[in-house]
Amino acid sequence: MLDFSDPQIWWFLTRASAIVAWVLLTVTALWGILLKTRILRGADNPDWLKVTHRYISGLAMTMVAVHIVTLLLDDYIDFGWADVLIPFATSFEPLPVALGVIAFWLLVAIQVTALLAKWLPEAFWKAVHLSSYGVLLLVALHSGLVGTDVGTPWYTAVSLVLITTATLAVVIRFIIAGREKPAPRKTPATVAAPQGDAIRAMPASNFTARVVDRVDSGSGLALITLTPVDKNLELEWEAGAHLTLHLGNGLERQYSLAGDPAEQDSLLIGVKNTGGPGGGSTWVHENLHVGDEILCDFPRNHFPLKPARRYQFIASGIGITPLRSMLYALPASREWTLLYIARSAKDMLFAEELVELYGERVSLWATGDRGSRPDLASLIDPAAEVYACGSAAVLDELERIVPARRLHLERFEPKVRVSGRVGQAFSVLAATSGVSVAVNPGETVVGALAKSGVVLPVSCNRGVCGTCEVRVLEGQPEHLDSVMSDADKDELGIMYPCVSRSLSAELTLEV
Ligand code: FES
After folding, report:
1. Contact 224, 258 (CB under 8 A)
2. What is the model's pLDDT at position 249?
3. Is the pTM of this model over 0.85?
4. pLDDT at residue 312 in the model
5. Beta strand 267-272 pairing with 221-228
6. What is the mean pLDDT of the chain?
7. Considering Cα of 466, then 322, then 218, then 317, what sign does the dihedral take?
8. Are residues 65 and 24 in the same domain?
9. Which end of the chain has fewer CB atoms at under 10 Å, N or C?
10. Which of 468, 486, 509 to mutate to test the pocket of ligand 1 (most atoms within 8 A of CB)?
11. Total domains present in the chain
């Protein structure tokens, strides 16, 4: 029990909080490095690991605050606020104390920029985050020069362990940084935009892939496995990601990755020959065979798997593809079920494999045999996060019956969304380029910016693929796309300007 009448209590607490803060700072730096180097990512969901990183950092910050407050409460040194917050304000051990004060302010900067990361330029907050290694050095010097317990065997042992751990962590971090692949090679891939105006897609980050396997199943379904032609190319993608193919007929088409994210070089896609307008899937079926090469954009992910205790996956037809990669990525401890709806058993990709691997967790529903679609309202798990992909009819019904906060959808076709501000113009400020443009009724943000020389990368131009994603710095976008939920976009501070507009008179975008 702590005895607060003991005059030594604050001195004891200030020492204890200091050592705990030092341990936590070392652990969180190490945790961040393990995340960065992907050593932990294979074991669990990356989002869960990032949350833990933030939690440990917050705890370390709390311990630093306890250290400062208890220093102020202790009578032995008689510190005032200025002494603990302004470097060199104190006459007691000015240099060692100043090192601690500087470390504190750096920590505040790291925490604040991490919290505001989605509104800040990525390069800026990452640079601030990098200063956490400087914090570790300052803390080590501060503790070694001014700590009451310096010289005692236990303190020496703890200090040596922490300093050695931090040093090893920093060395690993910089060795890994040195090995990281250079910026992806960019191959000019200028493709005419389908809307027929002057906009042309910018050269995208892309690579050439070769078809290494193709399996055609019933009902016009083809499973195609691609791999980069350049064996040194390191791809990075997570469950839910998709691949954009630049087809030989000038079209671009997006296909969800269905394989195991642990095998980053193996890009498995499922393509259903719809014979629909545009002919993208028909082109793939007729032209992509084993040994053929095709230009692809680097995988993107607008359908990420977020951490949750329980999941309900609902696939309809070809919508099984991103969900299959999610099943690979799920930690074994998670509870989940999969409902797979298709017209018939032969329209179900991977059905046998899924049942064999996961047994009763998987329910197959062939509408042709059963006569109708399942009654989704009676099947929804009220405690699960629902992830669904596939036909518009199924996804539309889920939007009606599942609360938006726990529903995660990926659409292949855009949802019909009508602007609530038809006929109204607004202005867009491209903050990076310093260009301001008026977006007139009937014009898109992408089109208006292109006229002023600010050309955004686009692919589908229908608000489905996510290629045109931009960060919103100010203003309120009117989301008219079908990429992730509007709440998720607002939380991330992003929009898709090929179709989305503005609810405010002006939008400021980071372009
Ligand atoms: S270009 Fe596809 S979402 Fe905008």
Report:
1. no
2. 83
3. no
4. 98
5. antiparallel
6. 85
7. negative
8. yes
9. N
10. 468
11. 4
Q: Are 437 and 444 in contact (CB under 8 A)?
A: no
Tokens of 352: 């046998």
Q: What token pair was written down for 359? A: 């047994």
Among 33-42, 407-416, 470-479, name the one with the lowest average pLDDT: 33-42
Beta strands in 302-441 (DSSP E): 310-316, 335-342, 362-366, 385-390, 407-411, 426-430, 435-439
423 Rama sector, left if φ>0, alpha if ψ -120 to 50, beta otherwise: left
- pLDDT beyond 50 at 273: yes
Q: What is the CATH number of the domain that holds 259?
A: 2.40.30.10
Asked if 308 and 405 count as a contact pair (C-beta separation under 8 A), the reply is no
Is 353 part of any domain?
yes
Average pLDDT over residues 321-343: 94
Is any ligand 1 atom within 6 A of the Cβ of residue 461? yes
Least confident stretch, 41-55, 239-253, 363-377: 41-55
Specify the ligand 1 atom closest to the Cα of 446. Answer: 4
Same domain, 263 and 320: no
Q: Which residue has the tokens 């014979």?
A: 275
In this structure, what token pair is assigned to residue 388?
A: 């669904």
Ligand 1 atom having least distance to the Cα of 499: 4
Query: Is 97 within the bounds of a domain?
Result: yes
Indicate which atom in ligand 1 lies nearest the CA of residue 498: 4
